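Support case: user asked for a sample of complex input and structure output to validate their parser. Sending the pair below.
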Amino acid sequence: MSKAKQTCFYFCWAFFFGLICSPADLLAQTSAGKGIKFGVSATLTGPASYLGWHDKNGTTLAAEEINERGGINLKGEKHKLELEFFDNETKPAKAVEGMRMFADKGTHVCAGPQLTPLVYAVMKFNEELKVLFGSYNTTPEVYEQGNKLILSATMNQKWSIGLAAYTAAKVLNLKKAALLVDTTGYGRAVEKHFTMNFKKFGGEVIDVEWYELKSTDFYPQLTRLKAKNPETLMFGGMSAEAVILIRQSREILGKKVLLIGSDYFKMEQLKKAGLEVSENTMIPLSGFHIIDSPARQSFYKKFQDRFGAEAETYGACAHDEVLWISRAMEIAGTNKDAFKIRDAADQAMRELEAQGLLIGGAHGGFLPNGQAKKYYIGTNILRGGKLERLKMITDLKEIGLE
Amino acid sequence: MKETSRKTSGVFWAILALLILLPFFLSKAYLHLAVIIGVHAILALSLGMVVGFVGQLSLCHAGFYGIGAYTSALLTFSHWPFWLALPAAGIISGLFGLLIGLPALKTRGIYFAITTLSFGVIMNIMLNNWVSLTNGPDGLSGLALPDPIPLWAKTSISFNTPRNYYFLVGVFLLFTIFVCRRLLDSRVGRAFRGVRDNEVLAECLGIRALRYKLTAFTIGAIFAGLAGSLYAHYLRYICPRDFSFAESFDLLVMVVVGGAQTILGPIVGALFILALPKFFGFEPVYGRVAFGIILVVVMIYMPRGIVGSFQKGFPSPKGGAHGPS
Amino acid sequence: MEAAILLQQVANGLVIGSIYAMVALGLTLIFGILHIGNFAHGQLYMLGAFATYWLVSLWGWNIWSSMFVAMGLMALLGMVLERIAFRPVRSAPHINGLIVALGLFIALENIAFILWGGDERTLPSPYATKMITLLSISLTIQRLLVFAVSILLIFLLYLFIQKTKMGKAIRAVAQDPEVARLMGIPIHRVSSTVFAVSSALAAAAGAMVGPIFCVFPSMGLIPILKAFVVIVLGGMGSIPGAIFGGFILGVAESLGAGYISSEYKDAFAFAALILVLMVRPTGLFGKE
């Protein structure tokens, strides 16, 4: 083959290949149903795939709930709610791509992305693209950026960490604390809020150790902490690390040190780590694990039956996101005008709350910056193999914070 | 040579015309992909300069990509205009290329690969942990768009659409191809080939191998830095994960599978590798399994890569005495 | 108290060092006879851990039998990979082999991801929650076992290489493949055996570490990177180099993390590598 022909051959081949290589994409575009599209940007793969799985299931149940009642009522006409899933692979760049894709397809409402770095990435674009999204698992700083199209589905570190600090200092009377957190914004938020609040309540943070995300070897940091003799150790950390954080900490620090987990630590992790090892560990439990309504029980059971696992806060929060954004669409009478929908969200949440349909823990309506006004949250400690509640609040003012 | 070059010119212009018209027919989603492919084509070419031109396996190239991106981001945060930040990113990356290349190129073969791997890992660790500079794992967001280029009559080309960005990237890609072509056709290019094919012999002939290897390495770093800047201001969000070993690996796959010793090879490789996951739509992780297997197969049966195999005729099945370069 | 902390850090380092040593040993053996830097070795570590995990979790086997079976399975897998992926590039430039290994590395990691997801799972082990204190060092029995088992396996390997016929054959091929072939040594069999043994070692390392550091698809990256550092520092193809290098790296890292900086812990190994290669571009005990 002459050089020119070759050039032509493989260039055309490669380009053609590239162009036709999205049958999935093309099909998705042409098979637009008559329903109202609701985007779900989930971390289905990547380090947070655990969350993504719960998101997918929680939103699915929410959509079914809505469709069982006839769907979304826009200006008198009923439409089915159709979820459109996008795997953002726990990558911020992908999350942005997902948001762009939704905007392209005329989907202006979305549940997720759910993690701080992903949210930071899309937050610069979603107002341009006019896509409203709900999010949980983000640091409070996210809501101080002035974004007008974001809604928070769960309490953030101001609440969970503030309450943890309060409980350790005021309820358990501990004075010397240490922290073991990752270097992400989440870890830093945990450090910032705990240090600030623990001090406020009369204690002192004597050491902070950092680790890189996805580390599994905490022995060097723990050995350093051992030298400082803390009475309690607070972790940032995600669910997966929780087990080894607890075990390794017990190994190095012994049984007397109170371990405090952050939002990601659940009973499941305590069991996996071993109840004996997890003795004397405190975890915050939010909304879903505290509320005991019929809606909550029904969700729990449906989740267990359909997906074969215990429902988590994550799925519940994603579920609520779909619910209140859908209701907001009904109130605003549109599924395209993101700003109008956002404005209706406050009323939507309060209506759903009154009907007892919310299960994630957020309630009371939305603040102008997108955060919910109130959350259910409590701290619990594992004693004798069982979780004992130490403190529960629905308003930060109850512990002197705001 | 001259007769085929006239034919190649014709084909070249035809393809160019096609690529220029394309964005007017593609949807936003495809344009987005095209921009990403374009950026990676530049990146792959820049790695091709190291792997193909001088035959060394560099595993830290994503680090230069990252340095370019972060430099550009931080400079624009300090109110530098994009059009100054872009070349600055290239220059700073080039500087790092020089600093890393000087010690690294003293080693060869697998030692060089491991050395660059180590540098790459260190660069990534610094991006992740130097929080005060880079904001750590959460990355930098809200990067500015390139400033609009003013035209006549108060209109200007702004870069807030993927289509315009596509052209911007296209221009830089053509520039990169141009530089590669000129380098290869020049005396420097011949020296590169000499060093690649037989370093000892080249040294005997008076070619200072280290100098040429360093040149290729540094120029590769410069272009990686430029690509980084283009990427950063398109996506307007960057984080250390985008520039990890996984990315260096992806680039390597593009170069090797496409054909390291050619100019078209890395471009075709970039297109192939980035379009492949799209084929699987929802689950890109299947695409990565495919990359790995394709890489193995290519290295065993077609070590010259797709383009390379066409250009010089098929090599013997075991790959013969030639590596990917 | 100071001394206790120091001892603890050293102990931590010895435990992690034994993992480095086991993985590096396999890597160096393969390099010795094939001159290929087998990156994919890290995935045999990971798959060994997963195999053990599934045997324990699904079928309730005890951890020791699971580990042995996993070692056997990985030995088989290693031999398969050698046959289909590495043997064809044996006579090609060594860089080709490295690229093949990289390709396998990525493919295997993502296959694991597709099959089992990215979640970090804790390998259940009765030894992981029992703690002891030796000379003011706190350890779980599991960590002690990691150290003890690796010493044992390394010793067994040493015996194998030094005292058996196959071991001699391996040493011969490592020294000079051409002469070895001329002397009638079955190179292919040697190659297979080395892969089998190396993979089994890696699997054992993964299985032992599963209860402490979790089992997940990307668990192989850092150990294999560190193993490369170890063999470059210790001499590629050198068995004592891999063993001592592994332990030294583990302890040095632990002390560095303990007394200098814990976030940059991983960087120490790589920085050390670069420094050494600058002074001696073929490693501390390198032959080429």
